[in-house]
Design a protein that fits this description.
Layout lengths: L2 H6 L1 H49 L2 E3 L2 E3 L17 E5 L5 E5 L5 H9 L8 E5 L2 E9 L6 E7 L1 H49 L18 H49 L5 H32 L8 E4 H18 L3 E5 L5 E4 L1 H18 L5 E9 L2 E8 L6 H4 L23 H11 L3 E5 L6 E7 L5 H7 L4
Parallel strand pairs: 9-11
Antiparallel strand pairs: 1-2, 3-4, 3-7, 5-6, 6-7, 8-10, 11-12, 12-14, 13-14
Helix pairs in contact: 2-4, 4-5, 5-6, 6-10, 7-8, 8-10
The chain binds adenosine-5'-triphosphate and magnesium ion.
């Protein structure tokens, strides 16, 4: 990992943000402390200097233009802490009129002191490399000034040492905060690493694994982990469905092939009459029909899955459509001794793909005819319900087996678990019907009915609500 990549890590970025905020606070607090401390130190020095100035000032003699310290008050040569104090009386032109104590370079001090403004306020002066605190006061009754100076080397040293100590403390605090922040960020992000590692390890063979982090309710990362788990569950279901679908599809395609092969083998075992060959070919053709029907259904379902099942947008007269479909099934209904009723009295137009919709209704009718015992009735009808057209196929048969109800519209669902194909298909019809209805913006449902099965195909009605007109608009 390069330094740049390392810096981009969330853990590092979190730590750096935290350290920057903490560091700024620590620096501000350290600087404020130092300023208050320095002010307090200077205040002590200045108080002593002012007190001394007051004592010395009281003893100054102004006599006939002569300004001297006089002898009444002993001049303090040093502060109470034993630090030497220099007192000067300086004329307006910078001439030293009188002086006391151990004075270092009094001329320089006198000249520098004359430039100090305002009077009465102690200031720092550095003469010959030595820092001094200097107070200049006017002398009453004269134009001379009293200059009082004391070295502050110790005070400056104390302040420098305090500053160094503060800088060291702030740096140590920042380093500690960085270490703590890095550790805390690492701990907080650990669930993310666990999640990443688990999800990275999961292959299509162990989709049953879950991240399953035990985090308190409401925790953001707990939510993320639950979201991952939910996604894994969906993937697992999707993979299972896909596996089952592939296995079922293979089975459905293999069964007629096996049957055809054995039919051929039996037929070819010896010479047959033309009659026998014809009968055998009829069996083969029926199996081929079944095979190609299943293959075609699978293809359509695959197209529906990939979203490429795009119905044409043709205006269909609903009445004609229902009549046309039911009349095609009339002969078969007759053969099964069933009454096929069609109720298409509704006038109106449906926009959709007639081939696909026919396929959907054909499957419903095929089911109804197969499941209704002789003497029964199958009814096809169409009715407008608000923004929808509802095409119904109802029969008087035994109704849908409760065992298959829950998965009725799933692929390869059929009541006969042995998958004997006597009279039944692969169990793809209803799922295809639903895929077609949904591709039209509608759906197909099994309605509750007292007797028999009642399927309803709901399709958008172009002149109904705005939404249905929108859906029915021809595509690009
Ligand atoms: N009208 C009905 N009455 C009773 N059961 C029905 C009816 N229609 C469907 N079913 C049940 O639903 C199952 C699924 O129907 P679907 O049309 O999807 O498959 P299929 O008819 O068995 O095969 P395919 O349609 O692929 O030829 C049927 O096997 C049957 O058990
Ligand atoms: Mg069917």
């Amino acid at each position: 990992m390069t330094a740049r990549q390392w810096l981009r890590r969330t853990r590092v970025r979190l730590t750096l943000t935290y350290v920057a905020a903490f560091g700024a606070l620590a620096i501000v607090a350290g600087a404020a402390f130092w300023l208050v401390f320095a002010q307090a130190q200077y205040a002590t020095v200045d108080q002593a200097l002012t007190a001394q100035a007051r004592v010395i000032g009281a003893g100054i003699n102004v006599d006939n233009g002569q300004v001297t310290f006089g002898g009444d008050v002993p001049l303090p040569g040093e502060t109470t802490h034993g630090i030497a104090v220099t007192a000067l009386l300086v004329s307006r032109r910078g001439t030293i009129l009188d002086q006391s104590g151990e004075t270092q370079g009094p001329t320089g001090l006198a000249r520098a002191a004359l430039r100090i403004r305002p009077l009465d306020t102690p200031v720092n002066l550095s003469l010959g490399g030595r820092p001094d605190r200097v107070l200049v006061l006017p002398v009453a009754g004269s134009r001379a000034v009293l200059v009082l100076a004391r070295p502050i080397t110790e005070l400056e040293d104390t302040l420098t040492q305090t500053a160094l100590l503060l800088v060291a403390s702030v740096l140590a605090l920042i380093a500690g905060a960085a270490a703590l922040g890095y550790w805390v960020a690492g701990r907080a992000l650990r669930p993310v690493r666990v999640m990443a590692a688990t999800v990275r390890d999961i292959s299509e063979h162990d989709l049953g694994r879950r991240v399953g982090l035990d985090l308190p309710p409401g925790d953001e990362l707990g939510e993320l982990s639950a979201t991952f788990d939910a996604m894994l569950s969906r993937l697992e279901t999707a993979f299972d469905t896909l596996r089952r679908f592939t296995a079922d599809a293979a089975h459905e395609l293999r069964a007629p092939l096996t049957l055809m092969r054995s039919q051929l083998e039996v037929t070819l075992r010896r010479e047959r009459s033309a009659e026998e060959y014809r009968a055998s070919h009829d069996v083969l053709r029926a199996e081929l029909d079944r095979l190609s029907r299943t293959a075609e259904q699978l293809l359509l379902l695959a197209r529906a899955d990939s979203g490429s099942l795009r119905p044409r947008h043709v205006r269909i007269d609903v009445d004609d459509f229902v009549q046309e479909v039911s009349s095609r099934w009339q002969p078969l209904a007759g053969r099964h001794r069933l009454r096929l009723e069609s109720d298409g009295a509704t006038e109106g137009v449906l926009v959709g793909d007639p081939d696909l919709l026919r396929r959907c209704l054909d499957n419903l009718l095929d089911n109804a005819l197969r499941h209704t015992p002789a003497g029964g009735t199958v009814a096809v009808s169409v009715a407008g319900q608000g923004p929808w057209w509802v095409l119904s196929v109802a029969d008087s048969g035994p109704g849908v087996d409760p065992v298959v109800r829950a998965t009725l519209f799933e692929r390869f669902t059929r009541a006969d678990p042995a998958r004997t194909r006597s009279g039944g298909g692969a169990g793809l019809g209803l799922s295809l019907c639903r895929a077609i209805a949904r591709a039209h913006g509608g759906d197909v449902t099994l309605l509750e009915s007292a007797s028999g099965a009642h399927f309803a195909v709901q399709l958008p009605r172009p002149n109904g609500a705005a939404i249905s007109a929108e859906r029915a608009r021809p595509g690009p």
